[in-house]
Design goal:
2 domains; globular; alpha+beta; about 220 residues; homodimer; 5 helices; Arc Repressor Mutant, subunit A; Jelly Rolls; DNA-binding; 4-stranded antiparallel sheet; about 25% strand
DNA sequence: CGAATAGTTGACCGATGTCAATGAAGGTGG
DNA sequence: CCACCTTCATTGACATCGGTCAACTATTCG
């Protein structure tokens, strides 16, 4: 299920806002690796030694329990960076949710890139800690509302929000089952808070109400 | 409820294992600030500009929802470091759980300490992401078992484990109520997996069983 | 020693999970 | 381009785990 990380493809027409303060000079102009839908970018236990920036598409980061229960700790959209680890081993799985282009930055051992990596790591830490509040203390409606607000903000705050991931992915991110996610979507629709344009995109009708629900 | 961060106290007799690879040369020999039980070390919204190393005692990091629900994202024990933020503002509260001594490292704006901070941030990130799995996908017994295993490991893997925090703190860390935490402790005791020596310390009788429960 | 605080236990309830049936959407081959 | 099939999502009935409320017990601190 490994992606062919050799193929070079041209950049997509829609621009990607750079999340990095300055261009990385350690490895200039990395080629973009293409990962088909569902393919693995790296696996738990593998040797780490690079980080990754999404050019287009979307990525899920997750962990598994022995019996198959899955927790998605993060989604990464275009422009976002992931894959750095505390030691030289990956502690999580990374998979392409859709057809996804990823720029891989390998770093030579010894090269000091902590200045560039630290803000990214701290951002990720804050994000993870905020997600802990959602999983630990919010009910199903609040979780879904928080998720939709977050996705909307990361897409520029537009009314229409694209959800590149399945209901199962959303459930595994929010600590819910697909049935509960589906029921909450229906409730939000019935309340007139959102509209379901199709399975993978929604329109936020009452932004304030949604924001209030997410606490 | 602010602690007097001026008082200097002598180091405790029991040694503190350093979690920092090398001594921080930016601000050598920081005094230790003392925080009485329950006092605030910093608050959400406050200006950040330092990080903190626990000398003795224990610290809780948490966030609140508007209605008072609390999620503790981390406990920090002797030797551990906390308090760095993605921007110049604290996003969480930090409180002393018990009488606690903290070494405060202020950094001048501009000073590049990313080399020292990055490994700490990455460790925290991995910890937070692993905690997401617990909150998102594990039931009450598994959560408490995982908590006890973690506390035991952080205290050197001894049979006897000190729990410096209250049942309420444990509940707010694990996304459970105090009643559920208490019931799980009782069940683990009845199964002969642990013994309750007193309210704040337990003995692990069947370490393998406990580890298996935590998945 | 007594009051206040923290923890335990029990009865009951409700939110969310489980299991199952139905419906919608997307991909593939004719 | 359409029909079929597979996959994904929705909806309903029911079960269960953990929360809520309340009473009781233990511990700590003045």
């Amino acid at each position: 299920m490994h992606a062919q990380s050799t193929s070079r493809i041209s950049l997509p027409s829609h621009s990607v806002q750079p999340s990095l303060p300055t261009a990385f000079d350690l490895t200039p102009l990395q080629p973009v690796s293409f990962f088909p839908s569902g393919s693995e970018i790296y696996a738990q236990g593998e040797k780490a030694g690079a980080f990754y920036q999404v050019e287009f598409g979307a990525v899920r980061i997750y962990r598994l329990l022995a019996d198959g229960r899955r927790q998605i700790s993060a989604f990464h959209l275009a422009g976002e960076t992931f894959g750095f680890e505390a030691d030289t081993t990956h502690h999580f799985f990374a998979e392409a949710i859709n057809a996804t282009g990823v720029r891989v930055f390998r770093f030579a051992t010894g090269a000091d890139i902590s200045g560039q990596l630290l803000p990214l790591a701290l951002k990720g830490l804050t994000r993870a800690q905020e997600h802990l509040l959602v999983l630990g203390r919010q009910n199903a409606i609040e979780r879904v509302a928080a998720f939709l607000v977050d996705m909307a903000e990361r897409q520029g705050g537009l009314r229409q929000v694209e959800l590149p991931m399945s209901r199962m992915d959303i459930g595994d991110y929010l600590g819910l089952t697909i049935e509960t996610v589906s029921r909450v979507f229906t409730r939000l629709k019935d309340k007139g808070v959102i509209r379901l344009l199709n399975l993978r995109s929604i329109e936020i009708i009452k932004h304030d109400a949604l924001h209030a629900m997410s606490e």
